[in-house]
Structures are given as C-alpha cells and as structure tokens.
Design goal:
Number of strands: 0
Distance between the termini: 27 Å
Helix content: over 70%
Strand content: under 5%
Number of helices: 15
Largest sheet: none
Length: about 425
C-alpha cells in the first residue's frame, strides 16, 4: 500500500501535500526559466555563436546520460523529497554565482558553461524524482487531473519566468539571477513542509540487476516503450527553443524583451490547455489524441520557422505549447499509472533520460544544424521530422495508437509483450 487508498478523496485543493508540491514546482521552474534567459542571452552576447547556444543543451544532456542508473536507484531507495531539496540547493548556489560574477564583471563563456553543467546535474536528479512524488500526494482516481495541474504549474512558470527574466534584464541584468536565488530558496521552504505517508524506501545494496530493472520493465511494456521513444525523437527534432535568441535578435528584431516573450509563448498555450484538462480530463481515445497533438506540434514548429512577424511567431509557439500539453498529460499519466510505486524512481529516471533530456540534446542538435544551415532551416527540418516520426510510430506501435483508457499498473499485466 502506498498510502493513497487511505487518503480521503476530494478535489485537488484538499490534497495539502500536492498543493505544496505544486507551489514548489511553480517556484523552482520560474527561477530556472528566468535564469535560462540570463544564461542564453549572455552567451549569445559574448560569443555570437549559434553553436555555443547548442552547447548549453549538450552540457545539460550529458549528466542525464551518465547519471541515469544512479538517479533511478536513489529515487527508489532514499527520501525523494531530500533528493529534490539537494537539487534545488544547487540551483540557488548557481544563481548566486552568476549574480556575483555579473556584479564583479567577470562573467565569461567558461563560467556560464560550468554553471549550466552544474544545473544539468541537479536537474537530472530533480525532475524525475519530483515527478515520481506526484502519485504519492493524491488518490489514484485524481492522478490524471493532478498531472494536468502539475503541467499547468510548469507552464505558468514557463510563462512568468522568461517574461520576468526578459523584463528585468532590460532594466538591470544583475537583478535577474538575484531574484532567482529568492525563488529557489522559497521552493526549498515549501518542499520542506510536504508530508507524504507511504512505505519506507528499501535500502538494499545496489546491484546491476536492480539498476537495470527500469529498462527491463519498459522493454516488456509495449505501450510504455512506444510513448517514451515517440517523445524522444519528436522533442529531439523539434528543439527550436535554443535558437530563440537568434530569432529575437536577428530575425524578429525584438531584443531581450521579445526573447522573454518568445520563451513564454509556448507556455501560454500549454497553460490554457492544462487548465482545461485539469477540469475536464481526457478519458477516451487517448492514443489517437496523442498522435494528433504530436502532428499539430510539428506543423506549429514549421509555422514558427517561416514567420518573420513577432505576433505570428508567438501564436505559432503558443499552438506548439498547447499541442504539447495534451501529449504531456497523456504520456505522463500513462507512465505513472502503468508503473508500480517501487519502480517509479527507476522508470522516471529512464523516462527523463529519453524524454526530458531529449529537450537539451534537441537544443544541441538545433544549434549545430543552425550553425551549418541557418536557424530557419534548422527549425523547418525539426518540424517536418516530427511529422515523419509521428507517422512512423503510428505504424510501429498499433497498441499505442488504439489505446482508449488509462489503467492502473495492477490491471496492465496483459500489456507485456
């Protein structure tokens, strides 16, 4: 028993641990997104290199690859709240370092890359572990709504963080990272108040078989394998975010404020969608709706690449974010519901490796292609590639295409290959 069945049913606002976790996610992501504005704009201002913008993604991807097995083992055997708090402490320290460097006038490309790598290490632990905490804070029947609300917290932060970062940067660049420190410390305080009832994590000595159990679990569940690899390739190809400084400065002539608005635009669409889904969850024809949302994502990416007008670019990014929100809610709920609690840390770590970290690898891919073929061509290739992948996966994973309803893990043994 995870303690979920013993928790009284009711609306999400009655689930105090979830509310506190939601606020923690909101504060952490606002700080992260605002700090990303400082880092991205500063690197491009210092180097003027699209490839260097891509390296930011690569430096965050490497820790996820190297640390995946350790992350999953730690999340299933130690207090997940402690792991997340340690990661948030690293965020606060990194933001403080950037603040001091900007005040001292010794901010450099190398220092920024070192900060990005440290944040990448912390994020590799924080995201999958934080995701695996969500099912322990709500009754099982509320999980799809909780996922939508969790997504809305992320999207509110992705709207507010870049917009706040871009606005403050235009006034006083050094204020941005200082404000980020405040957000990270506030998140630490909120998470410290979260109390979750459940089993005490096992402290059995780690073995290679135990560490690899997450891979084995995913490989024996066809739907999980399909949904995780679909997102891997779509996000890998659709990584236009890393190129936004180029679009804001060179194509749209929008400056740092416009850059912040562009970074916020996908979250506007995603937030509106997540709010609707938290009230009216998707319950039928899940597979079909997921593939449609992926196709819309690809089309919106192409539209953004072709646009030379800021409002149209923001609209395309908002549609991109809305379609991604539908896909995220379906994918996240599917992974959490079909995974038993004792495996969630390892499965979430692998999911982060193939899904979450593909965002950063996608940023590197987009920057590398942009350095070779130009930013517009890089985005166009990514959008068209996303459409191709969606079509291929519909044929390769028919069980996923025909998926109708969510089912808890104990009801899904027949999903094994």
């Amino acid at each position: 028993m995870s303690g979920l069945e013993a928790r009284p049913a009711g609306g999400l606002l009655r689930q105090r641990p979830f509310v506190l976790l939601w606020v923690t996610r909101l504060l952490t992501t606002i700080g992260y997104q605002a700090l990303a504005v400082v880092i991205g704009w500063s690197i491009y201002a210092i180097t003027g290199s699209a490839f260097d913008l891509g390296l930011v993604g690569l430096l965050q991807f490497i820790p996820a690859v190297v640390l995946t097995l350790l992350i999953g083992h730690a999340a299933d055997r130690y207090d997940r709240r402690l792991i997340v708090r340690l990661a948030q402490s690293v965020y606060a320290i990194c933001a403080a370092i950037v603040t001091v460097a900007m005040f001292g006038g010794w901010l450099s490309r190398e220092l920024l890359f070192a900060v990005v790598f440290a944040i990448g290490c912390a994020r590799a632990f924080e995201l999958p572990t934080g995701h695996s905490l969500v099912p322990a804070t709500v009754p099982t029947n509320l999980l799809p709504r909780a996922v939508a609300a969790w997504t809305s917290a992320n999207q509110v932060a992705v709207i507010c963080g870049p917009a706040l970062g871009g606005f403050l940067y235009a006034i006083e660049p050094r204020a941005v990272s200082a404000v980020c420190v405040v957000f990270f410390v506030a998140a630490l305080v909120c998470l410290g108040a979260v109390r979750i009832k459940g089993n005490v994590p096992s402290r059995d000595p780690p073995t290679l078989r135990s560490a690899l159990a997450g891979f084995e679990f995913i490989l024996t569940r066809r739907r999980l394998l399909g949904v995780i690899t679909l997102d891997l390739f779509v996000v890998l190809l659709g990584g236009a975010t890393a190129l936004l400084p180029i679009f804001a400065k060179d194509i749209l002539a929008a400056g740092p404020t416009g850059f912040g608005l562009l970074r916020s635009a996908p979250a506007v669409g995603a937030l509106l969608t997540a709010i609707v889904l938290s009230r009216v969850p998707i319950e039928r024809h899940l597979g079909r709706k997921m593939f449609i949302s992926v196709a819309v994502f690809g089309i919106a990416t192409v539209a953004f690449g072709l646009s030379t007008w800021l409002p149209l670019s923001m609209l395309a990014l908002a549609v991109l974010g809305a379609s991604d929100a539908v896909s995220v809610v379906i994918r996240f709920s599917l992974v959490q519901l079909e995974t038993p609690d004792h495996m969630r840390g390892r499965v979430s770590a692998i999911n982060y490796l193939f899904v979450g970290s593909s965002n950063t690898l996608g940023d590197f891919e987009a920057g590398a292609v942009a350095g070779w073929l130009g930013a517009v061509n890089s985005v166009m290739i990514g959008g068209i590639g996303s459409l191709i992948v969606a079509g291929l996966w519909m044929g390769l994973f028919p069980d996923l295409r025909h998926l109708d309803r969510f089912q808890p893990a104990e009801e899904n043994e027949e999903a094994k290959t």
